[in-house]
Design goal:
Low-confidence stretches of chain B: none
Shape of chain A: globular
Largest sheet of chain A: 7 strands, mixed
Largest sheet of chain B: 6 strands, mixed
Strand content of chain B: over 45%
Largest interface: A-B, 27 and 25 residues
Radius of gyration of chain A: 13 Å
Helix content of chain A: under 10%
Structural class of chain A: mainly beta
Number of strands of chain B: 11
Low-confidence stretches of chain A: none
Distance between the termini of chain B: 40 Å
Oligomer: heterodimer
Number of helices of chain A: 1
Order of helices and strands of chain B: EEEEEEEEEEE
Number of strands of chain A: 11
Number of helices of chain B: 0
Shape of chain B: globular
Order of helices and strands of chain A: EEEEEEEEEHEE
Radius of gyration of chain B: 13 Å
Mean pLDDT of chain B: 94
Amino acid sequence: DTEVTQTPKHLVMGMTNKKSLKCEQHMGHRAMYWYKQKAKKPPELMFVYSYEKLSINESVPSRFSPECPNSSLLNLHLHALQPEDSALYLCASSQDLEVNFYGYTFGSGTRLTVV
Amino acid sequence: TQLLEQSPQFLSIQEGENLTVYCNSSSVFSSLQWYRQEPGEGPVLLVTVVTGGEVKKLKRLTFQFGDARKDSSLHITAAQPGDTGLYLCAGGSGAQKLVFGQGTRLTINP
């Protein structure tokens, strides 16, 4: 299995809703990432997990809450989002933090619309 | 702050033509990666180059890493409509994450 699977593929939520994005990989990768991508822009790093521990938080607002229940799963909990948070949310994994050499395997993303 | 500048930002050419996309920085990177992203999908890693002057070929795609490891290029020969997409270069510097360029949006017209 060489894939990163993200669910759901599309999500529409109101500003008072609570929802979660899910990401799963079975490649034995030990580093997992959340990226946010706005239209016509490159991906922007949000969080990095290494060996199930939060390694980097790129000053992301607390309305985004990551969770890594085990080495194969990564969640992103969403609460009280704003319309400007609408974007494609990408999960990625890498063999380990030596991402320079191994690169990322990205999922297909969750297209989030906040109304 | 390390930055990667890609050029051109947009490129639209006819099927069968050749093209080159550039990725430049004033910083030295330990590696340069190229990704292709199609609409509604995540980026897919095409290649990683790690040695200054390195050239890698992937079918009709040729990737080069500059001698000083500050720049890279992607050359496509005889472009096909299936090459259409957003091409992203990404630099690694040992900081647990990659720096992405702004991307080149390539359209190949039949």
